[in-house]
Amino acid sequence: MSEAAKEPIPMKAPLYLALLHYPVYKKTGEVITTSITPMDLHDIARSALTFGVRRYYVVNPMPTMQYLARRVEEFWRSEYGARFNQTRTEALSILKICAHLEDGVAEIEAQHGERPVLVATSARRYEDCRLIGYERLAGMLRVENRPYLLLLGTGWGLIHEFLRRCDWLLEPIQGTGGYNHLSVRGAAAIILDRLCGNRKEG
To answer: Which domain holds residue 169?
Structure first.
């Protein structure tokens, strides 16, 4: 096989990512709003920028949590933060704090002239949702022009009713055994690599 044939196919569709802190489940099954974790801000932003995500939205309706997130963001975007860790500053350049998911959806729609395709993720498999596999979704991202918004949940996952309203639900990540409780940071990196990572043959 020639070297030209081994070149990866670039992603064509504009891809966006959102981390939702509401509506998600608590361990007991209650619907709650979770707290923003500073590590989720910069770690997921680094994965997102690595794999070509246009914007990383962190969605939380609580003003105190928005304030915390913006303080973290301001530090790493400051002159001191940039000198301390330039790559983290670069990663947070795609971060945006939102009170509601619709804020991010509206921004994407204004940018591209159409609403993004909403692709939710979950560690659970729901048969009454429109399930889609990684290979099929990766293929769509490489040939379509319309924007896609990948949705990650915190806590014990996005609630079932919300997942049913999305255009697609991505198949859960499966490990080698019965244990399946990845951190959202770990799941984000795996998902983005499967969908957007270079896959050269040979």
So the answer is: 4-196
**Taking the CB of residue 68, how many other CB atoms lie within 10 A of it?**
18
Residues 18, 20: Cα–Cα separation, whole Å:
6
Helix (H, G, I), strand (E, B) or coil at 167: coil
114: in domain = yes
Q: Beta strands of 5-87 (E only): which ranges?
A: 15-20, 24-25, 31-32, 56-59
Within-domain flag for 117: yes
Give buried/exposed letters for 117-126 (b at 16+ CB in 10 A, else e). Answer: bbbbbbeeee
pLDDT for 88-139, tens place per residue?
889 999 999 999 999 999 999 999 999 999 999 999 999 999 999 999 999 9
Over residues 23-35, the mean pLDDT reads 97
**Share of the chain residues as helix, strand and coil, in percent rounded to the nearest 5:** 45, 15, 40
Summarised one tens digit per residue, pLDDT across range 140-170 is 999 999 999 999 999 999 999 999 999 999 9
Q: What is the pTM of this model?
A: 0.92
Residue 158: give its domain's CATH number.
3.40.1280.10
CB 166 within 8 A of CB 119: yes
Interatomic CA distance for residues 164 and 49, integer angstroms = 28
| Residue 24 within a domain | yes
